[in-house]
Specification:
Chain lengths: ~290, ~375
Amino acid sequence: MKYLLSRYGATLTGGMILATFVWLAGMVILPYLVMADFSLRPNLLPADLGSDKDHYTLDNYGTLFRNEIHFVVFLRTLWGSALATLLCLCVAYPVAYFLAMIATPAQAATMLLLLVIPFWINEILRTFAWFIILAYNGPLNGVLRLSGLISGPIRWLSGSWGVIAGMVYAYTVFMVFPVYNAILSLDRNQVEAARDLGAPLWRIHWRVVIPHAKPGITVGCILVFTAAAGSYIVPSILAAPGTRWFTEIIYQWFYEGQNWQQGSAYAFLLLVLCLAFVLGMMRLFRVGLSDIAR
Amino acid sequence: MSQEVALEGVTRRFGEFVAVRNVDLTIRAGEFFSFLGPSGCGKTTILRMISGFIEPTDGVVRIGGRDMRGIGPNKRPTALIFQNLALFPLMPVWQNVAFGLEVRGVGKAERRKRAEELLAIVELSASADKQVADLSGGQKQRVAIARALAVEPQVMLLDEPLSALDLKLRQHMRAELRRIQQRTGVTFIYITHDQGEALTMSDRVGVMSQGVLQQVGTPLEIYNDPATPFVASFVGEANVFAGTVAQTNGTMAHIETSSGTFKARVGRGARSGEAAMLFVRPEHMRLGDAASGTANHVTASFSHAEFEGNFVNVFCDGGLRKPMMAQTRSDPRLLGLAHGEALPMGFDAADAVILPQGDLARE
Ligand SMILES: Nc1ncnc2c1ncn2[C@@H]1O[C@H](COP(=O)(O)OP(=O)(O)OP(=O)(O)O)[C@@H](O)[C@H]1O
Ligand SMILES: [Mg+2]
């Protein structure tokens, strides 16, 4: 602050701070306030606006707990996202460890590039590619059948499995990078010291590498979970009929139901879910905000 | 409690580069052995071969007579103390110390007890529950030692563990290391590029240069009877005269140099007619009147003197590349000399050694 003042003078500094506040207020806080306002009002016919029915209520939030189908979708989104996060971690951790500790610089550069290239392709296309791969008469079943591993095709896209596979594919990178960054800062000698003291591989990871990578793992889990819970494209393409994602219901309220009040309330509930996950992760891993910002 | 370590024809290549060349050496059980050599001479490579992080390209490492080929670092009876210590910063001190016991499945209460005993040995009992980051450099050092002792190694390997400490602490820790070694009786293999460290602590020293083990001996042998020109010039200070061996006569020889013909002891491998070097320690140089009684005389002129308290270092120009150095007891007359004043120098034949030029010429 002092630095800014001395460097740019009072006017410019004031201007910059004002601009920051305007930006924050206009782009971040205001829309949320409007949504919050919506979510707390009943959905009324124009004629009833301003009548005594027009008062603040938590009714829209209660809908979720009264509507059994929606509640099931909400729970499915919760556990589906959590499962996708866990699977992403299982896939990303070995990759990140290999990249950070074992690979030569050239290998690491190539692998990082290969990880990023799919993201030059539009998410819809990527997801459709998985739709094709996992289709009933698709290449995966074809290969499995040819190799004699299965006798008849498997319906991969029933239930939520297609969605979870698509999400793991789409979001593993979000996990790899923070975990990779975290492991990169680990002193290789610590791994060797643990080994020298007799530790087997799993204990080296459990006691030395994972504790060190915890902030990175937390960030990765938060990124993947929020991306998964808020994903719309992947479930709308890969989910079997009857296994909707919560985002699809929010979409319905806004565009098909034209009930913005209800939609806003559901959107906030999703936000609360994600926040709860973030806080839960930080507590579970005993990681503070400052660790994450590292 | 301790075992011998034998290196048999151990060679290690990295691609074309030979980091360690054909080392044959037996380090006795319970010995404090130091590898001494300049940076990049292959000391760490040797230590990593003994600890099992890398395998020799040729040759065998034996610990307690057992062939170590194919045995990983977690299965060897060694404990390595890393140059940067590599303590685990996310565990409190006692868990660091107890890590090796945790690995071996020792219960928590027992681990804690053992950790406290070990911390007592290194005089850190009060710090068991501290975080590693809160310790001073010397304390971290001792935690690393306790952590290595916890696994009851037969052989302790230390890779320049004192290099990060300041001078005072380094001297204190030298004594400390020696005390711990004598108390535990474990074989210590110590790496350093600091000759003072090697000479003060060790039972025996191995001097290395460019991957080759040049000489193995007690600190006294290394200092008084260097086997190669490299050892003579790397360990301690020396005045060097290059020349040709004129004639040998039993243990004595004459060497012709640009500063004159000198008589001195014959070192290993010096033969008449061959290029050789004569080495004299500064404390064996005689000055002024004292020089007249010696066998070898050098004409020199006074350059400058460094007063060190109980002794003084006198530098003289004698037509050599480097000024000659003599170390004598402080004498006010020496400090009063003017630059360029003639000052006779000399040394006894028994105090100088002639060594074949060998590898030093290449450096
Ligand atoms: N993994 C490796 N790959 C290639 N060359 C290596 C490797 N490890 C060591 N070297 C080379 O081997 C030589 C000896 O290395 P080493 O680490 O043993 O030296 P050192 O005597 O311990 O030196 P310092 O006192 O600087 O630690 C060096 O020239 C080094 O570059
Ligand atoms: Mg080294």
